Amino acid sequence: MTQDAPRNDRPRAVNGHAPDVFKREGQVPMREYPKNAPVDFVIVGAGCGGSVLAAKLAEAGMSVVLFDAGPFFQPRRDFASDEREQEKLYWLDPRISDGDDPIELGANNSGRAVGGSSVHFQMVSLRFRPEWFKARSKLGYGRDWPVDWREMWRYYDEVEEALKISGPIRYPWGPDRGRYPYREHEVNEAGLVLARGAEALGVDWAPTPLCTVSAPSGKSPPCAYRGMCKIGCSINAKQSMLITYVPRAIKAGAEVRDLAMVGRIETGADGRATGVSYYRDGKWRFQKAENVVAAGYSIETPRLLLNSSTAQHPQGLGNADGLVGRNLMVHANDAVWGEFDEEIRWYKGPPSMATCEHWNYADDDPSKNFDGGYSFMSQGPLPGDFAGTLTSSTGMFGDDLLEAMGRYNRMAGLKMVGESMPQVDNRVTLADETDELGLPRAKVTHSFCDNDRRLQGHGRKFMSRMMRAAGGKNLFETQSTAHLMGGCPMGDDPETSVTDDMGRVWNVDNLWICDGSLMPTGGGVNPAMTILANAARIADRIIDARFD
Amino acid sequence: MTHDRIYDTFRRRTRRPVGGIGLGAIVAGVGLGFVAAGLAARRPRSANPVKRSRNKREALRLGRDGAAIMGASVLFDSALEHLRGDFRRDEMYVAPLTGATAMAAALAEPRRRKRGRVLEVTHLSSVGIGIAGMGFHLRNISRRPGGISWNNLFYAAPLGAPGALIMSGLFGMVTHRMAQAEGYEHLHGRELACLTALALVAESGEVALLHFRGAFHDKAMYLPVTLPPLAAAGLMAQAIYPHRHFRRPLTLLLRAVEGLGYVGTGFHALGVARNSAGWRNWRQTTLAGPPMPAPISFAGLGKTGRAALDLLAVGEDQPRQNKERAAI
Amino acid sequence: MSQPFRTPYPGYDVLDKWDSPSFDDQTREVLRARRDPPPRRFLDPNQFALLEALCAVVIPQRRPEPVPIAPFIDAALHAGRGTGTRFATMPPERDAWLRGLEAIDAEARAAFDGRGFCELVRPKQARLLRSIDRGDCRAPEAWQEMPPQKFFRALLLKQIVQIYYSAPAAMSEIGYGGPASPRGYVRLKVGQIDPWEAPFGTWEDQA
Q1: Using CB atoms, which residue from C154, C157, C162 is nearest to A397?
Q2: Half-sphere exposure (Cβ direction) of A424: Cα atoms closer than 13 Å
Q3: C43-78 pLDDT, tens digit each
Q4: Is A182 on the interface with B (CB under 8 A)?
Q5: Which residue of chain C is at minimal alpha-carbon distance from A190?
Q6: Residues of B in contact with A217 (CB under 8 A)
Q7: Less crowded by CB within 10 Å, the N or C end of chain C?
Q8: Which chains touch A (3 or more CB pairs under 8 A)?
């Protein structure tokens, strides 16, 4: 078992084949590229950014090699119904977490597998509010995106269609968004707690648009409501990158290299990228490339750029102004939990089946004492996860803990996804110590600002009111964070951003970034769809530029 | 003894007292239905074979079978759906029971005299219980958060389902009446055509809702929302303005609708197989997947539709028949 | 001290579903492998005994065959398996555990006349842990700058409960559905349970 000897320590995408993710055994053919001839694109990271880009570029006829530090899983064989075993999906290598409000990494926000965090995300598939793309000019906080919201919304359409998002027919907030490709799921009782509370308080609620299918799609069965989304979907109902864009990329001729940790982006005498050095199967190797894309998310992307320093780029790539790694954002993940008379049994179904985005759109509410917004969802943590929440927030143990856990089936919760402001001092840097491969570990420094705290307080208060209105008793609150955004924001101005509007690093014209680290602001919704849509947009921009 | 133990286990599991009895009653209802079916299989031969044209006998048979199939569909579909709802209210046993009696009553037709009253009452009670069921379902929906929302229309008690019970009762009534009376075939034909048309439209509406819920993920899912409304239009036209014209293609269309009932059952079986672990996980997938007993009601409606056309033909032939008889 | 915990779901055992579609091969394999706890390899016997005593206070188990917890913590430390986060105020995980165990023992000795943690009766052990959680320490030097509450909550408690609640016995006692693949659930609303779930529970506050 994994505690003792990792079973997933050998690359599986080798010898012209990749694992067939829809079967317990079996492979699919995969093209391979020689290391010493430059491929069109090397993409580092097979998560929401890298997978979409790889699939679209390969489908446009380019040669692509997609690297990931994690294993290439076959969900139906490798994913057990066991929280502890499934920790293998997370990035468990230590990162150093500092600041006034140090964040928890690992299970909270970092995946390490082909498919990235999408393998264990909770599938909440929301869109940004249009005004957030011009947060500074329209709402007076944060930064502007170098993109028009209508363009982003076209790409939301595209990725939602590709992932067969199952969402409500009428979404109560924001401009009309057309119809989701698949219908909403049946809302479980935990979700109805939110619904009842919202109706009592007179605010809208909606069945959450989810990235798991409500009817068969291709080789995916409809969701069986196992409730183990956070530890990986063993039946392939969840439309993670691993079973959608990654197979698409392979089919279109891309090569995936799993268990391949890219340590450096190499640059030539002209300062342009020449390829990547990566560690796979026991030794360091080099892959030549015309273009390199960093898509390792908000910690690994800055870490990689910073660690690729040369005489010409002494502070790391794209970091002449010292901006790489800065403006890192998280979402406040504060929650309110309550006990009910009847058994809710929140373990059934995806954890967040109902959502309320009221405070993302209520600009004029007199009680709104913060910039930005937050949404919140119903909850359904697995026992180990919930026990950890209980102990880390209350310190309870012994029979008190057993008693509290004995009420597991009668609990319900509301948890927010609260926007936090981009701040230059929230950042990723390289620590002095190194990991097993000799690469400097990432150090993450994070502190909330006053506005963040006001927003969180407002959220906890409102969620408590709603929980009481729904009939919850013995409420208690917890504080946590989730998601990562920013670190290498894109923008129109090289002075204040790391890349241009298509993710191209200023001053290194064949180095790109394509993941959540590009996000100039975090918004008050889960970032997955925005990262995906942005990646689809960047892919089209690259394809257009190439064939012009 | 054993029954007590089963009963006890069931009650502890579900906190509901009636479990064992209710399930027993349903099983008994199914048995009753099949006994009736066995009896009915012999009926048309023994029942007053004289004076009836082949068309009329055929119409009676089709009407009877149609009504029985509708009843059977209600029996199995409501048993399945209410099992999914854990039979958490005693009233939920009524639906499959009524489905069973509706099926049995339909199969006991056609009768000409005695015990006709009992059957008539049974048909009428199917209609009544169907209407009450709709009320229950509407109440169930309106009490949930969201009220008449898509989520509740998709996943709460289906509003349209008890309609099949109403239809089964009405078809039973019509079959009953046309078996008892001679000389009103044309009128009965028009009635039956109209009724079948309405039932087809209602049924397609229900299918449209549920296949929409399934995002029409398979193109074949469009068939039951296109063919039946077409057939319904044809039947309605015949009901308003009976005309021999188009009757032949309409018969073909109705046969297609009937076939859809059988093929649909097969498709739904495949649909169950496409759920997590397929039939191996039948305890989940037969409830969560497409309902196996649902499509067959189209077979029933295809039959009653053809019965209507046959009756119209009988009615139109009658003057000629009478003349022929007079000539002999 | 609170009442001894009584499960609301007596008689329910997720392992009854071992051969049902709720369990798949990989889950059975994981649970089978966990049935034999790994040997002690990282901590020394005294440290291990202390860890076992801590586990027993945090999760008082009254069953004939208690769920083993300490061996898995030891195995994780041996394998160098991390959590993905090291707070800047904390030493690396292995050091944190060694230092924390030693400090807890030192706290016991400082508070109870030189008696080590293992020698204390359960209520005193619990009282000691509560004061450590409050930051009310008598042997601050033993912690060597490591924040006691951070160690106690973020490492000790968290690891113990996460190991415990991944055990079938713990799942059964809280009425959790347990492993669920390929079979999930059908009935999602209040008052509705699938036949393969725990029957409704009973609590003292609503008897």
Answers
A1: C157
A2: 6
A3: 999 999 999 999 999 999 999 999 999 999 999 999
A4: yes
A5: C189
A6: 217
A7: C
A8: B, C
Question: Is B88's CB within 8 Å of C183's CB?
Answer: no
Q: Which residue of C has its CA nearest to A222?
A: C184
* Amino acid letter, residue B63: G
**What is the rounded average pLDDT of the residues A160-164?**
98
Q: Which of A161, A169, A233 to mutate to test the interface with B (most CBs of B within 10 A)?
A: A169
A222 shares contact with chain B (CB less than 8 Å): yes
Q: Is C186 on the interface with A (CB under 8 A)?
A: yes
Count: domains in chain A: 1
Locus of tokens 């990262």: A531
Name every residue whose Cβ is closer than 8 Å to that of residue C166 and which is 6 or more positions away in sequence: A82, A83, A84, A85, A383, A384
> In this predicted structure, what is the pLDDT of residue A391?
95
**Chains contacting C (3 or more CB pairs within 8 Å):** A, B
Query: Are C191 and B88 a contacting pair at CB < 8 A?
Result: yes
Estimate the crossing angle of helix B19-46 against helix B54-84, to 10 degrees.
170
Is C1 a member of any domain? no
Q: Is residue A28 part of a domain?
A: yes
Domain count, chain C: 1
Residues of B in contact with A237 (CB under 8 A): 276
- Determine the structural domain holding residue A185 and report its residue range: 17-547
pLDDT at res. B293: 92
The answer, yes or no, to whether ipTM is higher than 0.90 is yes
* Residues C174, A406 contacting (CB under 8 angstroms): yes
Instruction: Tell me the per-residue pLDDT of A437-449, one tens digit each, with 9 for 90 and over.
Output: 999 999 999 999 9
Looking at residue A522, what DSSP letter applies?
-
Please, which pLDDT band fits residue B17 given cuts at 50, 70 and 90?
very low
Residue A3 is assigned to a structural domain of this protein: no
**pLDDT band at residue B21 under the 50/70/90 scheme:** low
- Please name the helix (run of DSSP H) or strand (run of DSSP E) that holds residue A406, with its range, or none: helix A398-406
Is residue A127 a part of any domain in this protein?
Answer: yes
| Residue B289: pLDDT over 90 | yes
The distance from CA B225 to its chain's CA centroid, rounded to whole angstroms, is 17
